[in-house]
Amino acid sequence: MEVHLDLAQILEGNPIPTFVIDEQCRITHWNRACQLLTGIPASETLGTTKHREAFYSHKRELMADLIVKQAGSDDLIMVYGGKVKRCRQTRNGYEGEDFFPGLGENGRWLLFTAAPLTDGNGHISGAIETFQDITDKRMAEQELRASEARYRQLFESANDAIFLLKDGLIADCNLKTLDLFGSSREALVGLSPLDLSPQNQAGGRSSENEVNRKRDLLQQNIPQFFEWRFLRKDGSRFDAEVSLNRFTINGSPYGLAVIRDISLRKQMIRTLEERQLALDEKSTYLEKVNQALKASLDHREVEKRAVEENMLVNLKRFVFPYLGELEACKLGSESRAYLNIVQTNLNDIVSQFSRTIFSKYIDLTPTEVRIADFIREGKNSKEIAETLALSPSSIQWHRKNIRQKLGLTNKKVNLQTYLNSLSE
Q1: What is the mean pLDDT of the chain?
Q2: pTM exceeding the 0.90 threshold for the entire prediction
C-alpha cells in the first residue's frame, strides 16, 4: 500500500496527463492532468476501462491495453496505422502521434507513450501511458510547411532564374533556371557561378576576379546589382542582370541571386544603335547632297545673273544710247511708231529683271555689277572672292571703283545700304 501511495502521489503531481492500468486493463491511476485533458474525473474511471472511450469517439483499445496483452510491434503498427514506433528512452515502450478530434473545441494533437509495468519476476502487471499536448507545435509545423509551400511555389513560378547559394555554391535553383541554362537541377546544384561563366566578362574583366570580389561584398551584407555574362550547358552565352543579396536560414548565411536574361534587350539596343548609325549616315549623305544641290543651284543662279547682267549692260551701253540718238532725229510718223515699239519692247524686257539693281547703275562693268549685287545681299569681300574665284584684294579694288562710279568717293555712306536704296 505504501508503494502504491507513493506512485499515486507522484502521478498526481505530474503535469503530464497519465493513467495506469493493471493486468486486467482496468484503470488504477488517473491523474489530475489526465482529468483536465479529457474532462473525465478520476472517480468515474478508477476500476473501469473508460480510458478506451475517453480519447476516441468509439470504444477501442489503447496502446497500454495492447502492451498488457503483449501485442507485438506489427500489431501495434497495424492498429495505429503506422503512427507508432518503439520508444528509445523507455525499455519495451512505444510512442506515437495522432489527432484526437473529440478533445477540446477543435481537437488536439497528442504525443502518447506507453510502457509495461512489471513485478519483481519480470511479469507484466500493467502498463502506464502518458499524453503530451503538441497541438501548438503541430499547428506551427503545419503553418511552416504551408508557408514553405507558398514560398516554394513563388520560387518555382518566378519568371526570373533564382540561385540559392551556400558557401559560394548553388544549393538550389528554380524551374526558370533550368530553362535558362538548358540544364537539370542535379547538374547545377553544387556548382559555383564561376562554373557557369566564360573566362572573361564583357570588357575583358576576369570572371574569377569578379566572382571573388562580389563574394567578399556579399559576406559584408552589401546588396549588389550588376550585369553578368553566363554560359549555357551547350556553351552558348547570354547576358543577364543579377540581383545578389544575403539572408539567413536557421542561423546559416545564404546568398540569393536573381538572374534576368537581357539578351533580347541588348540585341534590341544594338539594333537601335545600328539603325541610328545608318540614319545618321543617311542624314549626313542627304546633307551633302543638299549642299551640292544648293551649290549647283547657286551656280546656276550666278550664271543666270551673269546673263542678265551682260544683257542689261549691253543694252544700256550699245542699244539705248543709239535709240536715244535715233529719237532725236527727224523721223516720219511710221518710223517713230516703230521706234516707240522697239523702246517699249526693250523696256518690257528690262522690267523682267527689275528685281535686280543693274538698271540703276549702267556705268558698272559686268563684274562690278555682280559684286555690287553680292554687297547688296550682305556678303563680305572674302565671301564674294570665294564665290567669284577672285582674290580679296581684287574685290576691294572693284568696291573702290563702284563707290567712285556711284559718286560715293570720300562720303561716309555705307555701300550696302546705298545699293539697297537703289532697288526700292
Answers
A1: 85
A2: no
